[in-house]
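Incident log, structure service

09:12 report received: a user says their structure output differs between two submissions of the same chain.
09:20 pulled the input from the user's history:
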Amino acid sequence: MKKSCAMMMMLLPAVIFADVVSADVAAASNELDVARSALREGFWDIARLHASKVYGNEARLITLESWASEGKWDEVKKLLNVWKDVTGAAFDYYRAAASGARGQAAKILAAAGVEPAVAAAKMIEAEELEKAGDRQAAEKLWREVVSSSNVSERAFTVAAVNLKDPVLLRRAFEQARSATLRRKAGLSLGVALTGDAKTEAEGITLIRKLVKDAPDTKGADEAFLVIAEKALEGKRWAEAEKVFHEAIEIWPPLAKDSHVLEGRGWAQLGLGKLEDALSSFAAAAESAVTADGKAMAIIKQGDILTELGRGTEAMAKYREVLKSYPETAVAVKLKRVVEIHELEERGRELFKNYKFDEAREI
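09:34 re-ran on a clean worker, output below:
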């Protein structure tokens, strides 16, 4: 199963079926308590370490869920092969999920009868619907999940994040006991709040706080870059440039992200820092992974060179796009501009050499 399925599998609480409670719980309560807490917080290795010290089905399920949460389904399969004689709906669920039979996994959850399991089944179904392009049907299921009176904290948070509803996200953020889920809800809430001028400042403050506390949180970089994008939209060039610089300092790999480099270039253009902008767009062209991305960044270099009065260098950039990326949409539009410029240059050269008749024919 693909790693992207991991989030959906994480919706399954470690124990949701009555038949998996082991008799060893009382004797190893401390180890299981630590394993449960680690699982809830996303410390997969720690969860497995403490679960390995306990014999029983709950410990086994914690181990399976930790691997599933990391998207390491081969490890889940290996363990299930070792535990092939272990039965129960929860283990059937993991067998189905690990084999890629997501529909069967959802049916097992729904058949469990307890509301958290039913909600988890709906979450799996919703993900499949969204992948199939039926966002409306997926949203209907997510709303059913958040409306449930007895739903897991994880399912509620993920559904709220998918719905991008500020009210639900605030509720998830304020009520989450898991630090991991709280950060997840908080980052999404921050992004949602920046979409409204009245709450933009609150959203920016929230994102900055969460990034400061845990910059390695998944999605933290994307949420932080929303701050820069909002500054660009508002033509707050100095703020935008500062945020792009901060982002690269916090997450060094972004120094090779073409979108970040382009954004920084636009901010520098707005500030009149033409040489800096030229460097940013040059780096963006080098880092871009698509022909359109490279072509756009090179054209922007040409535009800046023109503004700097370096027309010959600018034309060289435009010709580079026409030669290297002729099929891109921007190249098609650029072709006529370059042709006109070349005709003008030819005409000027002819007039310079007193070839007036030839010049008039151009």
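09:41 both user submissions now match this output. Likely a transient worker issue. Closing.
09:42 reviewer note: The CA atoms of residues 68 and 300 lie 45 Å apart. The two ends are 64 Å apart (CA to CA).
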